[in-house]
Each structure stands twice: as structure tokens, then as C-alpha cells.
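Hi V.,

You were right to ask for the full record rather than a summary. Here it is.
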Amino acid sequence: MPRQSPSLDRATPELIARTALSIVDRDGPQALSFRSVADRLNISHATVQRRCTDIAGLLDLCTDHLAAEIPEVAPETDWAEATEIRFRALYELLVAHPGLVALRGARPWLGPQLLARLTEPAVAANLARGMAPAEAMATYRRMYLLTLGCASFVDHRAPRDHAARTRAALAALDPEAFPALTGHVREILPVLTDHEVFHSALRQLVAAAGPAAAR
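Predicted structure:
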């Protein structure tokens, strides 16, 4: 059997994922490539490609590396509390890495760590609460999409820039045609980057969720 190269031994999936994330976070999503990761690690880009196959595989490595940070919730934890813990943790991970979220786009997040830390325990908890399988998955899906959507459309690491762009866009509107938007700019702008929009919506979904028979 041919001996594995030392560079491949050194370039573990975890190291590649951490390096790729640091590139995206510091230089933006456009800076990510096999070559940029390889240069940072002082190895050949072919070595990175052997670990990931393609860019989609590299993104999968990154997202699954992050998903390992989602906390494991004790089985005896109250359902509502456990649900909030899981989705708040996912939200915080996504908000911290907007470049990765932008790169993944509509690609599903189906790595083994995400399935083990979020999807499986969340759906299992829904079933244990008395939901039918389809309802358990639909409940999970609503909260997942809320979380992904709230994290995707604002770079929360630069809220002032986002607010400034929005203010400029609103200022260009005709007040007669858009009185609701132009007449309340001061009140509208803070809401656009407020994390409480996500937290309150999640609490509402949690409060409304439950077995159909019980409702």
C-alpha cells in the first residue's frame, strides 16, 4: 500500500476547516479557494482537494466543524428551553460567519455533526412531546428556516454599515409614494439589525408549537 504523504497527514479536516473559516471571516467569501487554504497551510492545493474533492466539499467541512459547537442538551431539559438553546446556538454560529452563510446559499446543511447536534435531537424531542412525525419535522423546519433567514440577510458584524445603506435607500424614496417607510426612518433602522427580532420570533414559534391533538 502506498504511503500517505506527510502533507496529507498534517492537513486534517479540522485544520482545513478552521483555516478556510479564518480566510472567509477575514478576507470575505470571494477569497476562499483551495489555493488560498493551501498557501495558508504551506501545502499544495492538490492536498486540500484530496480532502474535500470540490469547493462544496470544503464548505461541508466548514459547516460541520461549526456544528460541533452546538451544545448537547440534557434529556431532562424542558422541551421549550431545549428548543431555544439549540436554535439560539445555531443562530449565533451563523451570525458569527456571514461569509460562510453567503457561500453556502441554498445548499442544505446536512453534515453528520449538524444532524447529530441539532436535527436528530430536535425532531426526537418533538416526537416525545406527542407530535406526529410530519408535524415534528414541520415544527423543526419552521424554526430552522427562521434561524437561517434571520442570520442570512444582515451582516450583524457590521450593523452600522447595513443601517447606513438602508438609510440612504430610504432617503431616495418619494415620501408621497412611501409615507410609512420615509416617515419613520429613525424607528425603523434599529429594528433591521436587532437580534431581538429573531429571539422574539423564536419564542413565538416555540409557544405556538405542540401536538395538533392538544391544540
